[in-house]
Amino acid sequence: MKKISRATAVIIATCLATLPSIAFAADEISGADTAWIMTSTALVLMMTLPGLALFYGGLVRVKNVLSIFMQCFAIAGVVSILWVLFVYSLAFGDGGSANAWIGGFGKAFFAGIGRDAPFGTLPESVFSMFQLTFAIITPALIVGGFAERMRFSAMLAFSIIWLIVVYAPITHWVWGGGWLQQMGLLDFAGGTVVHITAGVSALVAALVLGRRSGFPKTPMPPHNLTLTVAGAGMLWVGWFGFNGGSALAANSDAGMAIFVTHLSASAGATMWMLMEWLKFGKPSTLGIVTGMVAGLGTITPASGFVGPMGGIVIGLLAGFICFNATQIIKQKLHIDDSLDVFPVHGVGGMLGTFLAGIFVSSQLGVFSGAGLAEGMTMAKQVGVQITGILATGFWAGVITWLTLKMLDAVMGIRVTAEDESQGLDIAEHEERGYII
């Protein structure tokens, strides 16, 4: 064998000495995980723009369609700016002695977060952008509770305050190292953070603003179900990023989350269709897409913890329970939650958060749950889940009521009867969605 020169050996040894640092960097930031979360970020943003905008826009009357689009786009813009300024820091920063309740301002203005700053296997910029899309869609969901009757300026002020005093602290409680996370609350992708907070807040907003003129005697059917169905399809696909991306990695958890998300949406749509068929004699397009959304919202907190059979059962229960909740809210209580935010998202979020504590157990065999944490019994886990439901619902409801009452006293929150009759497209924005 030919001997290598001493100089060559030194060069080889020097190169090998650099390998540990290269390997460490590769382990710290994963290209695969980063690519998947960037893709998920785009999918979740699509859920709001244009998914939710189209879904809600088709459900309102023709004179208010642009107001829905305007509200969704305005929320996306304002929330994005506030997120970087300080809301991300409140949600995911270190709050010091108050860490169980709220993050601090250590990351305000993205201080200390460089281009290559890691968050697990992701750049922190990617993690923050992914979480930003959740912060955008949550207040946008609330729009459905007061659609067609809130002033645009009041909506904007409410969304800003709500983001800071409701969304940021609850996000910290559940995902930022706060007290609910420390208790062991299972919320994989936002049953409490997104759906319970938005649903309860929408219900409170509907009660504070009062009913639309003519409700419930005057029929107020959707003006364009084609838009609604198009938006629903985008929500279904986008939810794969919503739930699958919440694994924060390109791994088996993400894969299973996507699978059970699809199964729950399918089961929810099927159950809602059957319920309408039995009750009214005919299934409707509006019903089947609403059932799909109910299935999606309900599986969200459990999506990383249950197996395929769990996903199907959760979806079926979502279709059944949320369908009946809409009948109670609208038909019996006559609460004008315009686009059924509470019975679909609020009730669905509560149901899914509760069921996550049951179907997580690997002892249920065919349901193939991920398994309870060490030392956690099913009864204890369900207790933690109920605590999370009550705490997030109570905080969102009380703070929403106080915020709306304060804004009403300062600036007024409801449009005039004349503007409501004319429609918010003209009254608030001087535009028409359609040429008549």
CATH architecture: Orthogonal Bundle
Beta-strand content estimate: under 5%
How would you write the strand order of the largest sheet? 1-2
Tally of DSSP helical segments: 16
Would you identify the regions where 5 or more consecutive residues have pLDDT less than 50?
A: 7-27
Cα end-to-end separation: 89 Å
> Rg from C-alpha positions?
23 Å
- CATH topology title: Ammonium transporter fold
Q: Helical percent range?
A: 55-70%
The counted number of beta strands is 2
CATH class annotation: Mainly Alpha
**How many discrete structural domains?**
1
Please write the string of helix (H) and strand (E) elements.
Answer: HHHHEEHHHHHHHHHHHH
> Tell me, what's the shape?
globular
Structural class category = mainly alpha
**CATH superfamily annotation:** Ammonium transporter AmtB like domains
Largest sheet: 2 strands, antiparallel
Average pLDDT over all residues? 93
Structure characterization notes:
The protein is mainly α. The protein has a single domain, classed as Ammonium transporter fold, CATH 1.10.3430. It is built from 16 helices and 2 strands. It has helices spanning 6-17, 19-28, 31-59, 65-92, 124-142, 152-175, 179-183, 191-209, 225-244, 252-280, 285-299, 308-332, 341-359, 378-410, 417-422, 424-429; strands at residues 118-119, 122-123. The chain has a two-stranded antiparallel ribbon with strand order 1-2. The longest helix is centred in the C-terminal third of the chain and has 33 residues, at 378-410. The radius of gyration is 23 Å and the shape is globular. The model is unreliable at 7-27 (pLDDT under 50).
